[in-house]
Amino acid sequence: MPKILFSKASPYAAKARMAAVFAGYAFESVQTDTWTPDEAFLRSNPLGKVPVLVTDDGQSICDSRVIVLFLDRLSGGKLFPADPVARLAAEQLEALADGISDCLQAIMSERRFRPDDKKHAPWTDWQWSKVERALDRLESDPPDLGKGLHAGHIALRAMFGYLGVRFEGQWEATRPRLVDWLDRFDRDYPHFAEVLPRAPET
User: Fold this and answer.
1) How confident is the model over 1-20, as pLDDT tens digits?
2) DSSP string over 80-124
3) Which of 133, 149, 177, 135 is nearest to 86 (CA)?
4) The domain at 84-195 falls in which architecture?
5) How far is CA 98 from CA 12, 76, 95, 157, in A?
6) How far is the C-alpha of 167 from the C-alpha of 70, rounded, in Å?
7) What residue spans define the domains of the chain?
8) Tens of pLDDT along 120-148?
9) Does domain 3-74 have CATH number 3.40.50.2000?
10) CB 152 within 8 A of CB 92
């Protein structure tokens, strides 16, 4: 059976696994330690990053966007709309969600891995300002779920999963429309619950 290598908190790994579930692609989830990677993991992705999809024939497909595109082709287009305008909107939403995740992970790296005397608050504040601008843009016009799910929605829900794990209570109060969007997503697609980001054990 194909495998998706993941870590619990990763929004990118969550996106890949959610996309596989939605595309009807059967796979085994294999939790992977990216900080002390073994040789097999580094053979699958020399960058030592998740997610990695390992196919039945041993091919390693790296990077969440590449995996989503692979699954879209394999499923006959389940993850992106066929209409070019709608597809571009889905791709832009995926890129925005991934970009927010990039900023959040930059903040976490600064907080968790730099010594206290080398932490740079203006850097984390700058990253958080980008997150807030993006969330405010989404709050002003939440993505429409009424026309069917696509990869952009999936990426956004995965990003919000990471926000919930690492930044709970720091964004919701002023963004009620996004809170409502999350509630609706989880009501409409409860089968994704098992593959959303989760806090790793400490």
Assistant:
1) 999 999 999 999 999 999 99
2) S-SSHHHHHHHHHHHHHHHHHHHHHHHHHHHHHHS-GGG--HHHH
3) 149
4) Up-down Bundle (1.20)
5) 7, 24, 5, 11
6) 31
7) 3-74, 84-195
8) 899 999 999 999 999 999 999 999 999 99
9) no
10) yes
